[in-house]
Structures are given as C-alpha cells and as structure tokens.
Amino acid sequence: MEVTTCLTLKDLISTKKPKSDPVTDGRSAYKENMFDRFKISPRLPLRSEPIDLSKHKSFTPERIPVTPVKVAERPQADPWTPTANLKMLISAASPEIRDREKKKELFRPIENNGIEKTDTDLQLMDCVDDIDDLEKRPSRKQKSLGLLCQKFLARYPSYPISTEKMTISLDEAASSLGVERRRIYDIVNVLESLHLVGRVAKNQYCWHGQHNLNETLSDLQRVGEKQNYRAQIACFHFKDMGMEYKCDEQKKGCNMDQQNTPFIELSEADCPSVSSSSRKDKSLRIMSQKFVMLFLVSTTKIISLEIAAKILIEESQDAADHSKFKTKVRRLYDIANVLTSLGLIKKVHVTDERGRKPAFKWIGPADFSAGVDQKMEVTTTTPSPDSKKEACSLSPASDRVKQRLFRHSSFNVVQSFTNVKRKVCSQPCSPQKPQGVESSDSYASKMAHLATIYKQKTEEDSKHISSTSRNGSTGNAALPFSVVVPVPVKSDYCVQPVVHEVPHKTIHEPLSIVPPSQSHEECTNHGFVPNQPYMYLPSNSVIMLCGNLSEGKASEQLAKSLHLVPGSDSPTSEESNTSKQERPTKRQHTGKDDAPLSLVLPKKSRLHDTQSLWKTVCKPTTPEQLHHVSSGKEYNTEPGTKPNNLGEHTEQVGSTLLPSDHVHVQPAVPPQFLYVPTTAGLNGFNFLVHANHSVGLSPSQLASLNVPYVMVPSSALTAFPFICSPAVPSGANCSSSNGGMNFSQAGTSSPTHLTIGASQMAAPQLFEAAVDQAKNSSPLSTSTGSGMCGGSKADSHDCLSQSVHNAKLHKSPTPSTPKSIRPIHKDAFFKTPGSLDVSSSRKRQRTQTRTSSSAQRKLDIDSSVVN
DNA sequence: ATATCCCGCCACCTG
DNA sequence: CAGGTGGCGGGATAT
Question: Which pLDDT score, from 0 to 100, does residue A370 have?
Fold first, then answer.
C-alpha cells in the first residue's frame, strides 16, 4: 500500500479567498483575516501545515495570548520571519495561482500538447474567473471546521504562561469567529479531549495550551495499548486483506478485552458512566481520544478512517447499520479536522487492493513518552493538574527540542523511525509496560491465542505463497511474518521452537520452525531444500541465531543470544571480552539520549557455553551459506513483500553487505544474526543483521566479518544505531546520530534501506501487534522470560524474545529503568473528573453519556475553580 | 460516484 | 423555563 499525502488544510488555506464579499460579509472577511494571519504565521511552513505544535511552542512568546481574534489589517505588513515572508508571497500569489495550479493539475492529462495546454489554460482562467464570482460566497472550505479551528487556535498561545489563565468564552469565540456556537463546541470538545482546554464553567473554557499535551498523549497511548487497540487495528487490517479468518475471534477477544477493561482512562473522566459503554463512544470527546489512541498505538501511525470508525463503533459494529458507520465517519472527519489543524495528524491515503482509502497519519510528537517521563519526574511531586502545568514549564523546553528534531525530519520515514524509536524506548523497561500489565493475564492469553491463530494462518499462507506467489503489487496482502529462513538441513543451527516450550511465551516467541514435511515442494520452489526446515520469523521479533546448539540448550542459547542487553551491561560478569568490547562501542553509538536500544550480545553471559556456541555458529556461517540465505529472495516468502523492492533489496544486500570474498570467520566475534522484524508493514522486508555489526567495528573489520545478510526494517534501523553494512563505514553516522540513527542515515550507506523504510504500509502487523501487546500487557513475559532467556539475564526484559520495541527501550546503559516512574504519572487523564464525579454528586447514573459528561463537567469546573 | 463535512434540528441537561 | 450542550444525520460541496 502506498500512502499518499493529501493536503487538507493546505487546500483550505490555498483556497482562494476573494476578498470582498458582500454576502459573506463580516464573517468571511473575518475568516480571511484569520487566514492571512495564518499565512504569515511562522508556524506555517511552506507546506502550509496547519498548526504545528512544535513550532507553536517556539513562537509562543510572540503570540499574543488573548488577542482578539481579528486582525483587521493585513498582517502581512510585517512578517515575522523569513518563512513568513515566503508565506506571504505565496499567499499573495496564491489565490489565483493556486487555483490555476489546481486546475492545471486537473487538466494535466490533457496537457500533452502545447495547444491543448493553452486552451486549457484559457479554460482555467475562465474557470478561475467564474470561481471568483462564485467565491463571493464563502466556499465550503472556508467554512471548514479545520480552518475554523486554526482560527480558533490562533487566538491562544500554545504555551500560555501558567499564571495567566486564559478563559475562552464560547459565545465570544463564536461571534468573533463568525460561526455558530455549535461549531465551537465541536472544536472545543476535541481540544478538551487533549486537555488543551478545560471547561471552567458554562460557556466558559480555559485555555491550557500544550503544556500537557505530551502527558496527555502518553496517557492516551497507554490507554490505547491497554485497550488493545493495536490488535484491533490489526484485526481489521487482516480483515481488509481478505482474511476473514478468525478475525472475528480476535475481534471478539479484543472487544471483550475492551469491555472488560474498566474504562478507567481518560474516557472515564470524560465519560464517567463507564457502564454505558454504548454511550461513551458517542461523545465527540471520547471519540477523539480514542481516535488519537489508535494513532499512538499504531505502528504505522496511519489509521484509515474506515478502521477507526469500525473500531470506534464498538462491538455493536456487526452489521451495525451502515448509517451508524456513516455517522461515525462524519464525526471522525470533524475530529480529524481539528487534529489536523493542531498539526497532530495529516491526511493521507492508503491504497490497497480495494483502492484508495482515506486515512490519517500521525505527525504529532512521537517522542512524548520521553518527555513525559522527564516531566513525570519533575511533576511527580505536584500531582495536581494545575501544578502540572507549572511543572510543565520545564518540560516544554525539552519537549520542544525533541519535537523539533522530530519535525525536522519531515520525511515520513524518519518520522516513522522516531515513532518506532519512541515505542521501543518505552518498552521493556519503560514505565508503560507496567501499566499494561494489569490486564495482562487475560490479555496475554488472548494475545497468545491471536498469535497462535496468526501463526497458523501464516504458515498456511506461507505454503500457498510459495506455490502461488502473491502478486507483489498488493503489498498489503503481505503477511505479518517477515521472513522464512531456511535452516540448513544439516546445519548446526539449531533453533528450537521455543514457542512451544513456554506457553505464555508463545506470544513472544518469534520463532517457529516449520517441519520439513509440511511443505517441501513449495519450499523447494523458493529455493528451499527439500526437507529443509525453515524457520518462520515473525515480523516482530529480534533474533539472533546461533549455530550448533545442542538441542536441549538450543532454545536457551538462542534466548541468550537473542536477548537484548538492557541498558546495563552489568548482567553477567562472565561476559566474554568480546561482548564487553562490543557493548561499550555500541553504547557510544547509541549514546544519544533516546538512544535506541543498544544491542548487546548477551550471549557472552556464559563464556564457555557461548564460546562453544560461537564456534559452532561460525562454522555454518560460510560465505556460501550466508549468501545462500541472503540471496534467496525466494526465502522471503512474505506475501506482502513487493517483488520489485524485494528483488532490488536482496540484490543490493547481497552485493553490498556480503563480502563474500572475504568471508572469514573471526573467532573473536562469533557470527550472530540479528533478525529484525519488519515494522508496520515495511515491505515486509527484514534484515538479518550480523550481530557484530552493532559493535563498533571498523569498516574493514566489518567487511572481514562473515556477515550474512541484513534485512532491516526501517523502523528497526532507528532502533539499532549500529546497523550498517560491513561495506559501509557508517559507524560514524550511527554513533553520532543523536536522534538515533535514522533511517535516512543508514540509507546513505545503503539506499536500499531507505527505499524500504519509506513505504510504510498501513498493513497490519497483526502478529506484531499481538506480540507487542502481549508483551506490554503481560507481566508474565518478563517472568516467564527465563525460559527464553536462559536465565542468564538479570532482567527478564532482556529476553531475546522481546520485540524490537523492547529492545529499543533500553536507552541508557544503565539497566535500571524508570519503570517505577511511569506508573506514577498518570495523573492527567485519570485524574479527578471521573472519580469526583462518581464520588461527589454522581446524582444519577443515567446511562446517558450526556448526563455523565455534564456531571463531569461540573466536577471539572469545581475542581478547576478550587484551584 | 464517492469523499468530505457543513449545518442546524432538536433532545437533554443544567441553572 | 431558558439557555447551554452536543448527538445526529440530511444533504451540499469537493474530488
């Protein structure tokens, strides 16, 4: 699936706005003014993005907080920044030009010959004229909620000084903006869901600004994960892909989960009446939160309207009237407009076999977790909402910085990376997990089930795939699993289906070996050797393969090898020198604050065992073998993979990464393959990274290393700073990158990567989702991890089974993670309203949301007032 | 035709 | 009861 970005607000902005308009009178004029203002506004990038939160921040000071809406004159008079100037220019020209451009676009197909073109232009001009006439009346776009929201937002500073409480009068806002109050409600409700505003009293809201945004997002993310939204998304994706199959079950599970989970989170606040699940979704506020949650938990950060609607419709979704769906979608559009104007999401389109579908991509802060953490620490002491704000004064800066970084990486790819990174960081050690833990048991089991199903499906598909290669065109169809790696029949590689060993781990367990018997034929087609077992590597797993493990220990070994070393090397003193060396190096690389996980080679933990292990490993790792593996595109049975890309990638990988000539094993550095799962449907292309890569080996060394091939999902790269092809001395990049290396950088060395990363498919990563969730939610994973980990690990988290995400989590060398911290901060969403509501006057528990909300509001008001 | 989503009716609530 | 809220979906407009 390809994602195409669309311009929403942009369009709005670009829309020509003819000035004088009798009909529209003040209102339109007003809008226009607002509009102009926006144009000039620094925060609007060339792209005329809506409101860029991050930018907002920076400019906050400049903004006049309470400014009355209107800027009577042309603000253009004095642009504040170069950008503004540019913008101004653009805006100046924009009306006609843009329209013309648009028209041209429309006619472009015909523009083949000059003559026609000319005609076209003429036509266009005419059209424009007509349009101008028509424009007298405010176009629909000009009245869009998104634009309105921008105007609304323009009135308030992103980061108001805590002391000054800006109150928003709905009436005033409505009148000043020239719209009905009803519309203001729409906006305010969404803003409220993000805590950008708070209701103070009837007809009065107070502007909080974005001080708490990160926190809010963090909370939402947490809740979203708890809600199992990721799985739900996956389910729907799955469904979309035409795999009806068991989806229902999964869905049920999801829903059940959802239902079971006390709707504690934010929603609670907003919607006290948990019981009235039916109602809660109806609230625009809650819908908004949920919608955001979907983005936050989504690996792709892209949520199609359709899926969002379905998920939000709740369990009743079944045939749930089409009308309901429609209504939902309408609401989602409303919400999306506001979010878009906030610069949190942008419109995109996902294309799958069924055609283009409207979707939105999260472009808001992705690293808020870290920020939150920091905040938390600071804020922790001051739990109260208000204090929160104050405390925030601190955090904003850091956040800002981060956000900026993020912003700068305007490339989707990068963004995705960032996201991934963030997630990762928050994983194992992260605070988030702990929370999810609560419901984990049931959840885990469900996920396990899901995973199982998935696996089955996958296996089944893999068979089919081999025989009937799915056309790559529909990347979407890609199955979740990333790679099927042939296991040399005689090879020493011994991978045990650890999965089976530990029930709970099933979910986590990335590997599964398909018995040769199952599909020799197909396998053969793909280059598999008959009877050759192959290993199924779920997209979400990170695996290190070690050769020659005795069966009994295989899993253990594997586990060891696989597990990522958490921040601390401390684990075992027994570690081999090699590992030690490596770690330090890596550390350096990953040095950045958010440093992705540092992939440490845990195996060293048991020197002896490991060594032997290594030996064996090395053996198998002959150039040929490696090559075999790497070159075998065939192996990549992933249905979703795009043939083209795949081919290219493979080739490149093979040529670039595999110094076949020089392959010689270095005893010191046992070959390990790090399997990095694809994320978010990245072409389904994964890489096997030689573990050593991660080490700060010199290029030459790397080259000399016997490296299999590496398939790295873009997202994964972020997490693994060290990843680089042996051929490329990218070490510098990796190490230096503070943002964590980003894909782009990696790309420098190998273009291939980039290509891959770029395409993020909305494709479901069911498995991934399942794994993640299971992981997150289930505490068991950690405890049970021992099986996998081989007990060496100090931290269960370190288990290899952990997904990349987890791995990434380990940012700092220090193992001790702030997990404890996380739990602490959950204030914002869970705070008061709900509880208050209940405890206090909870006058009636009417099933009606409204009541509850009202009640809540009251509470809110009260509390706020008190403060 | 489909995607968007504006508009405002009207039910519910609160004061 | 008046006014505040906001669910909802018809139907206009944009693609």
Answer: 54
